[in-house]
Amino acid sequence: MNITIQLAKELKLKESQVATTINLIDEGNTIPFIARYRKEMTGSLDDEVLRNLFERLTYLRNLEARKEEVIRLIEEQGKLTEELKKEILAAEKLQKVEDLYRPYKQKRRTRATVAKEKGLEPLAEIILKQETIAGSLDELAQAYINEELEVNTTEDAINGAKDIVAEIIADDAKYRDKIRNLNMRKSIIISKVAIEGEDSVFEMYYDYSEAVNKIANHRILALNRGEKEKILKVKLNSPDEEIVNYLIKEVIFNSKAITYESLSEAIEDSYKRLISPSIEREIRSDLTERAQEEAVKVFAKNTKPLFLSPPVKDSRVLAVDPSFRTGCKLAVIDGTGKLLDYATIYPNAPQHRIEESKKIMKNFIEKYDIDIIPIGNGTASRETELIVADTITEMDKEIHYTIVSEAGASVYSASKLATEEYPDIDVSIRGAISIGRRLQDPLAELVKIDPKSIGVGQYQHDLNQSKLGESLKNVVEDCVNSVGVDLNTASPSLLNYVSGISTATAKNIVKYRDEHGKFLNRKMLKEVKRLGDKVYEQCAGFLRISDGNNALDNTSVHPESYAVTSTLLEKLGYELDDVREGKLKNIDEKIFEYKAANTKKNAKEESTKSNNRKTVRSLQDLASLNLKTDTPKETNRKTIKENILALAEELEVGVFTLKDIIEELKKPGRDPREEMPKPVFRSDVLKMEDLKLDMIMQGTVRNVVDFGAFVDIGVKQDGLVHISELGDKFIKNPMDVVSVGDEVTVRIIKLDIERGKISMSMKGIKRT
């Protein structure tokens, strides 16, 4: 099947959409660019659909390339038949292609290859032919005795021939496919404890079994880790008898043949020695791949809201990286993210220099007029929180603190990037700087962290790091390009995720900025070394200049649409400076009037112009009155829609593009993160001992996994809302209900203070 047709069928898209998108990808356009600026060509496919299309396109192209390679390799051996070629070309999965190639693949030295070297292949063919002839197989085997080749007896000859037969059966694609499917439907995965008497987090898997076709992805990853750490022994319990009976029925067609007994033995040996271990490895591998793919998706879905956490702009912060013995690191950071001061205090065990620590913090708060104190959530976080909260109560000014995830801060602080950013600052202080800047601009700071260290998802350290990294890259790319990047402040790390910009180009942009000062307009990007026309086309719309000489440079309107935008403004009675001054909030009113004002047919239309204006302004009032008529509202929507179509035709621009331009003109410099849940600021402290059963609390979702969500309610340990407690209805996927960063209301249903475990429920409680 043609790849375009197949993708259209799989993704339920039009063939024209798929064909156009493939062309755009092949021309070197990035997914964010296609999603944002080529909507007319793709039919407004979003970035998620486009990435799925790109992923499947890559797989199918690799599949086609592998088919061609396999056909060539078999043909070189002179063994390619038309039937085999058709089977290979018809294969829809890579596994099927590999199964068909298996008999022709160069193998390492096996018992079968040794037997072939001893000249026993003809005897193996006799066994497979299953002829009813006089005599016995022993008599036929006499002809293959050869002491020079170490075939000393007829038993040696028959055993060698059976080894060849066993391998032929094991390599048959049809048999393998059937056995694999049988195992997937009927196998049981079993785990046992490897060392009796040992306690571990894998305790529930010490004597565990579950059907392969029902086991949840997170349990597969747990079993894999337990096995890797040699705490668990894991195996597959397959329907062996059913499989052997299937092979006997498929292979044996003459039960009266003199070779019947030897062939039966070869079949059983083929399954137990060759097929079963191989298929078990394949199934375990397939289960792991499936679980890892799902875990990567979980990671991506958790990461997106984390990266899109709203920035706390223009706030002066006193960041605290808590610790016991080595002391808490303090970093004072101004509203632009610049480090102003730093220190180390020792309020916790073993020093307990509480008053001294408070004095230093108070001094920083007063000297730098601190607004917020972000505290890392790692070791000694809650103990430090007590001291910070106590310090706040002793201050005259209003000040709050908040808990910030410090996952990966220590990894970043020792990285090459951190060394380049803060060459003269101690490694330990860099962690505090990272915590502070994460509060001020999570997106800009988190792009510097290694994916597995970000602290969301499940078993991310066990996942394929290449796939995890690619997933993070895609998520961050989508986030960065949906938010936009300030061209005059962005670091190379952040610029590197902008559509079309490579690591080298990002460094060149910063170098140009350092040498020539601020960018005054997007056109200046063309002066950057190695930033050609194609890169400019891909990146320009995602880069912002807030105080440049063109107001459109602070919007996501692409430079290729500047002329159209200027004409639009002129037609609607606006000037470019009106965009900078935010005067286009009521642009819908102008669009509503536009057609009537330019296609007047009679005096009656002219007289209704002012009435139309009143209608637009009173829409909100009509909605609030809940009148039983939708005529004005529906008429308004219809008129605006018609006028946008008319404008698009006049301006010779696509409707999708025009709508995007209009939305950008309403709110130039808009940051979509402002619509996300804000961080929780506190001034008091809650301890585990303060909690009681049935207590209703507010919390922040910190992580979402297959089996539920972890929620921070302000105590030392995040509580778990199990998937069964996430809502009053059945929930298949926790991410259908909650996301990282959500503010939720929970009820405590179980407390284990000694072990620091909190179980919570959201049943019967409305989400906040």
Structure description:
The protein has 768 residues and is an alpha/beta fold. The protein folds into 5 domains: 3-104, Arc Repressor Mutant, subunit A (Orthogonal Bundle); 140-160 and 174-298, Tex N-terminal region-like; 317-479, YqgF/RNase H-like domain (Nucleotidyltransferase, domain 5, 2-Layer Sandwich), CATH 3.30.420.140; 547-668, no CATH class; 688-761, Nucleic acid-binding proteins (OB fold (Dihydrolipoamide Acetyltransferase, E2P), Beta Barrel). 50% of the residues lie in helices and 11% in strands. The chain has 33 helices and 15 strands. A 5-stranded mixed β-sheet has the order 6-5-4-7-8, sandwiched between helices.
